[in-house]
Amino acid sequence: MPIVVPVKQTPPAELLDCAERPTGLPEDADLVAQIPTKLRAGIIRLARAFGANASRLDRLVDWNAPGTCAGAK
């Protein structure tokens, strides 16, 4: 259950939109085999960092308006 805390200032509008999450790369075993190991590891690091930042943004939005980004996870 979300905890609501009074806020003195409302964050800027661009910080009150739920994060957009792109579809990502196709899951085709033939394509994965063509990506060099070091490049694939870099793609995974970028995807994890993107996901962490998207989750932070959703938590900020939900902190200001509980339940707004509930379906985005």
How would you describe this protein?
The chain is mainly α. 44% of the residues lie in helices and 0% in strands. It is built from 2 helices and no strands. The protein has helices at residues 29-32, 37-64. The longest helix is centred in the last third of the chain and has 28 residues, at 37-64. It is elongated and about 50 Å long. It starts with 28 loop residues before the first helix and ends in a 9-residue tail after the last helix. The model has no long low-confidence stretch (mean pLDDT 83).
Please indicate the percent range of residues in DSSP E strands (runs of 2 or more).
under 5%
Subunit organisation of the chains:
single chain
Distance between the termini: 16 Å
Query: Class by helix and strand content?
Result: mainly alpha
Instruction: Give the number of DSSP strands.
Output: 0
Using only C-alpha atoms, the radius of gyration works out to: 17 Å
Helical amount: 40-55%
Weakly predicted, low-confidence segments? none
Q: Figure out the total of helices.
A: 2
Largest sheet: none
The succession of helices and strands, N to C, reads HH
Shape: elongated
Mean of pLDDT: 83
